[in-house]
Amino acid sequence: MKIGIVGLPNVGKSTMFNAITNAGAECANYPFCTIEPNIGVVPVPDERLDELEKMYKPEKKTHAIIEFVDIAGLVKGASKGEGLGNKFLSHIREVDSIVEVVRCFEDPNVVHVDGSINPIRDIETINLELIFADIETVEKRLEKAKKMLKAEKKYQAEIDLLEKIKKVLEEGKSARTIDFNDEEKELLKETFLLTLKPILYIANVSEEQLSNADTDDNVLKVKEYAKAEGAEVIPLCVKIEEELSSLEPEDKKEMLEALGLEESGLDKVVKASYDLLGLMSFLTAGEPEVRAWTIKKGTKAPEAAGKIHSDIQRGFIRAEVVSYDDLMREGSMLAVKEKGLLRSEGKDYIMQDGDIVLFRFNV
Protein backbone atom coordinates (compact mmCIF):
# COMPACT_ATOMS: atom_id res chain seq x y z
CA MET A 1 0.00 0.00 0.00
CA LYS A 2 1.42 3.37 -1.07
CA ILE A 3 0.69 6.77 0.46
CA GLY A 4 1.67 9.86 -1.52
CA ILE A 5 2.93 12.91 0.40
CA VAL A 6 1.93 16.02 -1.54
CA GLY A 7 2.03 19.78 -1.06
CA LEU A 8 3.10 23.00 -2.68
CA PRO A 9 6.86 23.63 -2.90
CA ASN A 10 8.52 24.63 0.42
CA VAL A 11 5.74 23.58 2.79
CA GLY A 12 7.88 21.01 4.65
CA LYS A 13 6.82 18.01 2.58
CA SER A 14 10.24 16.50 1.90
CA THR A 15 11.45 17.36 5.41
CA MET A 16 8.50 15.42 6.80
CA PHE A 17 9.25 12.51 4.46
CA ASN A 18 12.87 12.51 5.69
CA ALA A 19 11.73 12.48 9.29
CA ILE A 20 9.25 9.63 8.67
CA THR A 21 11.63 7.44 6.75
CA ASN A 22 15.12 8.73 7.68
CA ALA A 23 15.71 8.24 3.95
CA GLY A 24 17.62 11.47 3.43
CA ALA A 25 15.57 12.84 0.53
CA GLU A 26 17.13 16.04 -0.85
CA CYS A 27 15.62 19.07 0.82
CA ALA A 28 16.23 22.69 -0.19
CA ASN A 29 14.61 26.11 -0.13
CA TYR A 30 13.61 26.30 -3.79
CA PRO A 31 10.75 24.83 -5.87
CA PHE A 32 11.01 21.46 -7.64
CA CYS A 33 13.82 20.15 -5.45
CA THR A 34 11.94 16.84 -5.54
CA ILE A 35 11.52 15.75 -9.16
CA GLU A 36 11.45 11.96 -9.07
CA PRO A 37 9.42 10.64 -6.15
CA ASN A 38 11.41 9.39 -3.16
CA ILE A 39 10.08 6.19 -1.62
CA GLY A 40 10.43 5.03 1.99
CA VAL A 41 9.14 1.92 3.73
CA VAL A 42 8.08 2.67 7.31
CA PRO A 43 7.17 0.37 10.23
CA VAL A 44 3.73 1.03 11.70
CA PRO A 45 4.16 1.88 15.41
CA ASP A 46 2.45 -0.83 17.49
CA GLU A 47 2.95 -0.93 21.25
CA ARG A 48 1.31 -4.38 21.33
CA LEU A 49 4.40 -5.89 19.71
CA ASP A 50 6.59 -4.44 22.48
CA GLU A 51 4.42 -6.10 25.14
CA LEU A 52 4.40 -9.43 23.28
CA GLU A 53 8.18 -9.19 22.98
CA LYS A 54 8.45 -8.92 26.77
CA MET A 55 6.18 -11.96 27.16
CA TYR A 56 7.73 -14.28 24.55
CA LYS A 57 11.33 -12.97 24.34
CA PRO A 58 11.44 -13.86 20.62
CA GLU A 59 14.46 -13.91 18.36
CA LYS A 60 12.78 -11.40 16.08
CA LYS A 61 10.11 -8.66 16.17
CA THR A 62 8.50 -7.56 12.88
CA HIS A 63 6.20 -4.56 12.49
CA ALA A 64 3.59 -4.08 9.78
CA ILE A 65 4.91 -1.69 7.13
CA ILE A 66 3.55 1.10 4.99
CA GLU A 67 5.13 2.78 1.96
CA PHE A 68 5.41 6.57 1.68
CA VAL A 69 6.11 8.35 -1.60
CA ASP A 70 7.42 11.93 -1.58
CA ILE A 71 5.90 13.49 -4.70
CA ALA A 72 7.19 16.65 -6.41
CA GLY A 73 5.72 19.97 -5.24
CA LEU A 74 2.79 21.12 -7.35
CA VAL A 75 1.91 24.57 -8.74
CA LYS A 76 -1.12 26.07 -10.49
CA GLY A 77 -1.62 24.70 -13.97
CA ALA A 78 -0.37 21.18 -13.17
CA SER A 79 -3.43 19.66 -14.85
CA LYS A 80 -2.31 21.48 -18.02
CA GLY A 81 1.29 20.32 -17.64
CA GLU A 82 2.68 23.42 -15.87
CA GLY A 83 5.83 22.92 -13.76
CA LEU A 84 6.15 19.21 -13.17
CA GLY A 85 2.38 18.79 -13.47
CA ASN A 86 2.25 15.74 -15.72
CA LYS A 87 4.74 13.85 -13.54
CA PHE A 88 2.92 14.95 -10.37
CA LEU A 89 -0.42 13.64 -11.63
CA SER A 90 1.01 10.35 -12.88
CA HIS A 91 2.71 9.75 -9.52
CA ILE A 92 -0.52 10.52 -7.64
CA ARG A 93 -2.40 8.00 -9.80
CA GLU A 94 -0.04 5.30 -8.52
CA VAL A 95 -0.69 5.81 -4.78
CA ASP A 96 -3.60 4.47 -2.72
CA SER A 97 -4.15 7.55 -0.58
CA ILE A 98 -2.82 11.08 -0.09
CA VAL A 99 -1.17 12.92 2.80
CA GLU A 100 -1.32 16.64 2.01
CA VAL A 101 1.12 18.88 3.88
CA VAL A 102 -0.20 22.42 4.40
CA ARG A 103 2.02 25.25 5.59
CA CYS A 104 0.56 27.12 8.57
CA PHE A 105 3.76 28.78 9.86
CA GLU A 106 5.40 32.13 9.06
CA ASP A 107 9.14 32.17 8.30
CA PRO A 108 10.79 34.95 6.27
CA ASN A 109 13.75 32.61 5.60
CA VAL A 110 11.59 30.03 3.78
CA VAL A 111 10.01 31.44 0.63
CA HIS A 112 6.39 30.60 -0.16
CA VAL A 113 5.70 29.88 -3.81
CA ASP A 114 2.70 32.26 -3.72
CA GLY A 115 4.36 34.89 -1.55
CA SER A 116 2.21 34.60 1.59
CA ILE A 117 0.79 32.12 4.12
CA ASN A 118 -2.77 31.10 3.28
CA PRO A 119 -3.47 27.40 4.00
CA ILE A 120 -6.91 27.25 2.34
CA ARG A 121 -5.60 28.84 -0.86
CA ASP A 122 -2.76 26.29 -0.84
CA ILE A 123 -5.13 23.33 -0.32
CA GLU A 124 -7.39 24.57 -3.10
CA THR A 125 -4.42 25.05 -5.46
CA ILE A 126 -3.66 21.33 -5.21
CA ASN A 127 -7.23 20.07 -4.96
CA LEU A 128 -8.41 22.13 -7.93
CA GLU A 129 -5.64 20.69 -10.11
CA LEU A 130 -6.78 17.19 -9.11
CA ILE A 131 -10.39 18.19 -9.79
CA PHE A 132 -9.49 19.52 -13.27
CA ALA A 133 -7.67 16.26 -14.04
CA ASP A 134 -10.72 14.29 -12.84
CA ILE A 135 -13.11 16.36 -14.98
CA GLU A 136 -11.02 15.43 -18.00
CA THR A 137 -11.13 11.73 -17.00
CA VAL A 138 -14.90 11.83 -16.42
CA GLU A 139 -15.57 13.55 -19.75
CA LYS A 140 -13.58 10.88 -21.62
CA ARG A 141 -15.42 8.10 -19.78
CA LEU A 142 -18.77 9.76 -20.47
CA GLU A 143 -18.05 10.02 -24.17
CA LYS A 144 -17.13 6.33 -24.30
CA ALA A 145 -20.13 5.21 -22.19
CA LYS A 146 -22.57 7.16 -24.40
CA LYS A 147 -21.21 5.39 -27.48
CA MET A 148 -21.52 2.00 -25.76
CA LEU A 149 -25.09 2.78 -24.66
CA LYS A 150 -26.30 2.35 -28.23
CA ALA A 151 -25.32 -1.33 -28.04
CA GLU A 152 -25.94 -2.06 -24.33
CA LYS A 153 -28.45 -0.32 -22.03
CA LYS A 154 -26.42 -1.26 -18.92
CA TYR A 155 -24.16 1.74 -19.60
CA GLN A 156 -26.97 4.10 -18.53
CA ALA A 157 -26.10 3.52 -14.84
CA GLU A 158 -22.47 4.49 -15.52
CA ILE A 159 -23.56 7.59 -17.46
CA ASP A 160 -25.83 8.68 -14.60
CA LEU A 161 -23.01 8.20 -12.09
CA LEU A 162 -20.43 10.05 -14.20
CA GLU A 163 -22.80 12.99 -14.73
CA LYS A 164 -23.45 13.11 -10.98
CA ILE A 165 -19.67 13.21 -10.31
CA LYS A 166 -19.04 15.79 -13.05
CA LYS A 167 -21.61 18.17 -11.55
CA VAL A 168 -19.88 18.05 -8.15
CA LEU A 169 -16.40 18.44 -9.66
CA GLU A 170 -17.52 21.46 -11.68
CA GLU A 171 -18.65 23.04 -8.39
CA GLY A 172 -15.01 22.82 -7.28
CA LYS A 173 -15.59 19.95 -4.86
CA SER A 174 -13.75 16.63 -4.63
CA ALA A 175 -15.50 13.38 -5.59
CA ARG A 176 -14.88 12.11 -2.04
CA THR A 177 -17.52 14.60 -0.78
CA ILE A 178 -20.27 12.61 -2.60
CA ASP A 179 -22.33 10.02 -0.73
CA PHE A 180 -22.39 6.98 -3.06
CA ASN A 181 -24.73 4.01 -2.77
CA ASP A 182 -23.45 0.39 -2.97
CA GLU A 183 -24.19 0.05 -6.70
CA GLU A 184 -22.33 3.29 -7.45
CA LYS A 185 -19.37 2.19 -5.30
CA GLU A 186 -19.09 -0.95 -7.41
CA LEU A 187 -19.07 1.09 -10.63
CA LEU A 188 -16.51 3.50 -9.12
CA LYS A 189 -13.85 0.80 -8.82
CA GLU A 190 -12.94 1.35 -12.46
CA THR A 191 -12.93 5.16 -12.56
CA PHE A 192 -9.46 5.82 -11.02
CA LEU A 193 -10.44 9.33 -9.91
CA LEU A 194 -7.76 11.27 -8.04
CA THR A 195 -10.22 13.13 -5.80
CA LEU A 196 -11.73 9.83 -4.63
CA LYS A 197 -8.48 8.81 -2.96
CA PRO A 198 -8.68 9.04 0.86
CA ILE A 199 -6.84 12.10 2.18
CA LEU A 200 -5.17 13.17 5.43
CA TYR A 201 -4.16 16.80 5.99
CA ILE A 202 -0.98 17.71 7.89
CA ALA A 203 -0.98 21.26 9.30
CA ASN A 204 2.72 22.13 9.49
CA VAL A 205 3.09 24.61 12.36
CA SER A 206 5.99 26.35 14.11
CA GLU A 207 7.24 25.19 17.52
CA GLU A 208 5.47 28.18 19.11
CA GLN A 209 2.16 27.30 17.41
CA LEU A 210 2.32 23.61 18.37
CA SER A 211 1.29 24.07 22.02
CA ASN A 212 -1.78 26.07 20.93
CA ALA A 213 -2.56 24.17 17.72
CA ASP A 214 -6.17 23.51 18.80
CA THR A 215 -6.93 27.24 18.78
CA ASP A 216 -4.54 28.39 16.04
CA ASP A 217 -6.45 30.29 13.35
CA ASN A 218 -4.69 28.66 10.38
CA VAL A 219 -5.08 25.13 11.81
CA LEU A 220 -8.78 25.74 12.52
CA LYS A 221 -9.30 26.83 8.90
CA VAL A 222 -7.70 23.60 7.66
CA LYS A 223 -9.88 21.54 10.03
CA GLU A 224 -13.03 23.29 8.81
CA TYR A 225 -12.10 22.59 5.17
CA ALA A 226 -11.25 18.94 5.91
CA LYS A 227 -14.52 18.37 7.78
CA ALA A 228 -16.51 18.82 4.55
CA GLU A 229 -14.52 15.92 3.05
CA GLY A 230 -14.74 13.76 6.16
CA ALA A 231 -10.95 14.02 6.42
CA GLU A 232 -8.68 14.16 9.48
CA VAL A 233 -6.15 16.92 10.26
CA ILE A 234 -2.96 16.33 12.27
CA PRO A 235 -1.09 19.48 13.39
CA LEU A 236 2.66 18.90 13.74
CA CYS A 237 5.89 20.84 13.68
CA VAL A 238 7.97 19.24 10.95
CA LYS A 239 11.14 20.88 12.32
CA ILE A 240 10.65 19.18 15.71
CA GLU A 241 9.78 15.87 14.04
CA GLU A 242 12.99 16.04 12.01
CA GLU A 243 14.99 16.51 15.22
CA LEU A 244 13.10 13.70 17.02
CA SER A 245 13.71 11.29 14.16
CA SER A 246 17.48 11.66 14.51
CA LEU A 247 17.52 10.79 18.24
CA GLU A 248 18.10 7.48 19.98
CA PRO A 249 14.92 5.99 21.57
CA GLU A 250 15.76 7.13 25.14
CA ASP A 251 16.66 10.67 24.02
CA LYS A 252 13.52 10.80 21.88
CA LYS A 253 11.38 9.77 24.86
CA GLU A 254 13.05 12.47 26.99
CA MET A 255 12.42 15.16 24.37
CA LEU A 256 8.77 14.12 23.97
CA GLU A 257 8.29 14.36 27.74
CA ALA A 258 9.90 17.81 27.75
CA LEU A 259 7.47 18.88 25.02
CA GLY A 260 4.53 17.38 26.94
CA LEU A 261 3.77 14.87 24.16
CA GLU A 262 2.87 11.18 24.54
CA GLU A 263 4.02 10.24 21.04
CA SER A 264 5.59 11.97 18.07
CA GLY A 265 3.41 13.63 15.47
CA LEU A 266 4.90 11.33 12.87
CA ASP A 267 3.80 8.23 14.78
CA LYS A 268 0.29 9.71 14.64
CA VAL A 269 0.68 10.31 10.89
CA VAL A 270 1.80 6.71 10.21
CA LYS A 271 -1.03 5.25 12.34
CA ALA A 272 -3.63 7.56 10.76
CA SER A 273 -2.32 6.71 7.27
CA TYR A 274 -2.66 2.98 8.02
CA ASP A 275 -6.24 3.57 9.17
CA LEU A 276 -6.92 5.82 6.16
CA LEU A 277 -6.36 2.83 3.87
CA GLY A 278 -8.83 0.72 5.85
CA LEU A 279 -6.00 -1.46 7.15
CA MET A 280 -5.52 -3.24 10.47
CA SER A 281 -3.14 -5.80 11.96
CA PHE A 282 -3.49 -9.30 13.29
CA LEU A 283 -0.63 -10.70 15.33
CA THR A 284 1.32 -13.92 15.58
CA ALA A 285 3.43 -14.62 18.65
CA GLY A 286 5.98 -17.23 19.67
CA GLU A 287 9.64 -17.66 20.58
CA PRO A 288 10.91 -17.42 16.98
CA GLU A 289 9.05 -14.18 16.20
CA VAL A 290 6.30 -11.77 17.22
CA ARG A 291 4.83 -10.11 14.16
CA ALA A 292 2.07 -7.80 12.93
CA TRP A 293 0.45 -8.74 9.61
CA THR A 294 -1.41 -6.19 7.49
CA ILE A 295 -4.93 -6.97 6.26
CA LYS A 296 -7.93 -4.98 5.08
CA LYS A 297 -10.71 -4.49 7.62
CA GLY A 298 -13.39 -7.13 7.00
CA THR A 299 -10.90 -9.84 5.91
CA LYS A 300 -11.95 -13.41 6.71
CA ALA A 301 -9.64 -15.90 8.47
CA PRO A 302 -8.53 -17.95 5.40
CA GLU A 303 -7.52 -14.79 3.47
CA ALA A 304 -5.62 -13.57 6.53
CA ALA A 305 -3.85 -16.94 6.68
CA GLY A 306 -2.85 -16.42 3.05
CA LYS A 307 -0.86 -13.34 4.11
CA ILE A 308 1.49 -15.68 5.94
CA HIS A 309 1.63 -18.33 3.20
CA SER A 310 -0.62 -19.40 0.33
CA ASP A 311 -0.41 -23.04 1.53
CA ILE A 312 -1.95 -22.06 4.88
CA GLN A 313 -4.91 -20.47 3.08
CA ARG A 314 -5.28 -23.43 0.72
CA GLY A 315 -5.25 -25.99 3.55
CA PHE A 316 -7.06 -23.85 6.13
CA ILE A 317 -8.81 -25.89 8.85
CA ARG A 318 -9.40 -23.36 11.62
CA ALA A 319 -7.95 -20.35 13.39
CA GLU A 320 -7.16 -20.45 17.10
CA VAL A 321 -7.74 -16.87 18.24
CA VAL A 322 -7.30 -14.83 21.41
CA SER A 323 -7.67 -11.08 21.62
CA TYR A 324 -4.56 -9.11 22.57
CA ASP A 325 -6.41 -7.51 25.51
CA ASP A 326 -7.43 -10.91 26.92
CA LEU A 327 -3.86 -12.22 26.70
CA MET A 328 -2.42 -9.14 28.41
CA ARG A 329 -5.03 -9.27 31.17
CA GLU A 330 -4.48 -12.99 31.87
CA GLY A 331 -0.70 -12.78 31.53
CA SER A 332 -0.03 -16.01 29.62
CA MET A 333 -1.45 -18.26 26.92
CA LEU A 334 -1.86 -21.02 29.52
CA ALA A 335 -4.08 -18.78 31.65
CA VAL A 336 -6.05 -17.81 28.53
CA LYS A 337 -6.73 -21.48 27.77
CA GLU A 338 -7.73 -22.22 31.36
CA LYS A 339 -10.28 -19.38 31.27
CA GLY A 340 -11.68 -20.64 27.94
CA LEU A 341 -10.71 -17.43 26.14
CA LEU A 342 -8.91 -19.17 23.27
CA ARG A 343 -11.50 -19.47 20.51
CA SER A 344 -11.63 -21.84 17.56
CA GLU A 345 -12.88 -19.94 14.49
CA GLY A 346 -13.83 -21.23 11.04
CA LYS A 347 -13.73 -20.00 7.45
CA ASP A 348 -16.38 -17.31 7.92
CA TYR A 349 -14.68 -15.62 10.87
CA ILE A 350 -14.00 -11.93 10.21
CA MET A 351 -10.64 -10.95 11.66
CA GLN A 352 -10.47 -8.24 14.34
CA ASP A 353 -7.65 -5.76 14.93
CA GLY A 354 -5.25 -7.20 17.52
CA ASP A 355 -6.32 -10.83 17.13
CA ILE A 356 -3.44 -13.13 18.09
CA VAL A 357 -3.78 -16.16 15.84
CA LEU A 358 -2.44 -19.65 15.27
CA PHE A 359 -3.72 -21.08 11.98
CA ARG A 360 -4.29 -24.83 11.72
CA PHE A 361 -3.99 -26.19 8.20
CA ASN A 362 -3.39 -29.34 6.19
CA VAL A 363 -1.87 -29.54 2.69
Task: Give an overview in words.
The two termini are 30 Å apart. With 363 residues, this protein is of the alpha/beta class. Mean pLDDT is 87; it is low at 23-36. It has 15 helices and twelve strands.
Largest sheet descriptor? 6 strands, mixed
Q: What's the gyration radius in Å?
A: 23 Å
Oligomer: single chain
* Order of strands in the sheet with most strands: 2-4-1-5-6-7
Structural class estimated from helices and strands: alpha/beta
SSE pattern: EHEHEEHEHHHEHHEHHHEEHHEHHEE
Proportion of residues in extended strands:
15-25%
Helical element count? 15
Terminal CA distance reads 30 Å
Helical percentage: 40-55%
Q: What overall form do the CA principal axes indicate?
A: flat
Unreliable stretches: 23-36
State the total count of DSSP E strands.
Answer: 12
Average pLDDT over all residues: 87
